[in-house]
Amino acid sequence: MTRMNLTQFAAMLGLPTSHDVESHIHAGLRSAPTTKTYKRWFDSELRRLQAGRDEAVRRFRAAVTAGEIVDADADVDLERVAQGHPDNISTQAAKRLLEKRRVAQEQS
After folding, report:
1. Domain boundary among 67, 84, 99
2. What percentage of the chain carries pLDDT values higher than 70?
């Protein structure tokens, strides 16, 4: 299984991410001329980018659910929780889950 996050997955498939959508919005707000033609183009491009981003998220979640890839961001969150106070139940659970994943990786 390959470990990757949504941004890496979208780049591999050539699909836009939230970063692309936000960049387009920011650039459009900074340099938007007042013409209707520009507004129509900007809106259609924004819809295209948002649809591509939604498709990337859908495919990424499907691949994670199918077990084809492992979400690398989930491990980062678990590692952060595992650094908590040792008496905290969620810290103990995160440590157990990380240990199980490490053992499973070593066996495969």
Report:
1. 67
2. 97
Top mean-pLDDT range of 16-20, 27-31, 98-102 = 16-20
Number of domains in the chain: 2
Considering just the CA atoms, what is the radius of gyration of the chain in Å? Answer: 20
Task: Tell me the mean pLDDT in the region 59-69.
Answer: 91
Q: What are phi and psi of 27, to 5 degrees?
A: -65, -40
Burial zone of 9 (CB within 10 Å; 0-12 exposed, 13-18 middle, 19+ buried): buried
Q: How far apart are CA 100 and CA 108, in angstroms?
A: 12
Quick one: 52 and 16 in the same domain?
yes
What average pLDDT score do residues 10-22 get?
89
Q: Which of 5, 18, 8 is nearest to 50 (CA)?
A: 18
Domain span at 15: 1-67
Q: Are residues 62 and 97 in the same domain?
A: no
